[in-house]
Amino acid sequence: MPSGRCRTNSRLSKLSIRVTSYRPVKTESFTSAHSSGRLDRTAVPAQHKNSQQNSTYQRLLGTSIVSAERLSLVLPIPPSINHQYATVNGRRLLSSAGRAYKTQVGQQIWVALAQSPARASLINRLQSGSLALSIRFFFTSALRRDVDGGLKIAQDALCEGLGLNDNRIIETHLYKSVDKIHPRIEVSLSLAAVSSH
Length: 197
Known about the structure:
Layout: E1 3-8, E2 11-16, H1 28-35, H2 46-61, E3 64-66, E4 70-75, H3 81-84, E5 85-88, E6 91-94, H4 96-114, H5 119-126, E7 131-139, H6 151-162, E8 169-178, E9 184-191
Parallel strand pairs: 7-8
Antiparallel strand pairs: 1-2, 3-4, 4-9, 5-6, 7-9
Helix pairs in contact: 4-6
């Protein structure tokens, strides 16, 4: 696997990036249904449906917007609060699932910043003031999880990936939505609008 390095706030982070390619399954029924403009779901093999959904989901998770004022990312749903920590010798530690999640978020941040000419300006701004964080959770069911269960690990992963101290976040907005096919979180970090009083 190729590896890259990203310098943020005088820290060096070594990250591994896995690139996967998607090759559609070619079948006569799918090709003809697709070219006619009407996709008959019965003509598409189940394996291809899953491949299409996985490919769309992976592209969705890779979505990012980096400007001089804001970083917006689409990230996977964090592990549930019960799976974020493990007790080892009486001490509560971040679990392997929690560590893997932070690594994945760090990789996505690295890729987003590496592809943007605004990265230096953004990092300078984020390091200079109080921050506002917005997270919209898209769960498979509205009743499955609490909206605040993934806040801490998502916030930590985002700030660690950017080399920022998360105690500078003074404003947090949480939203809960449903997407049965593509569960995810949409995260945005920017400078907070500090009031004069």
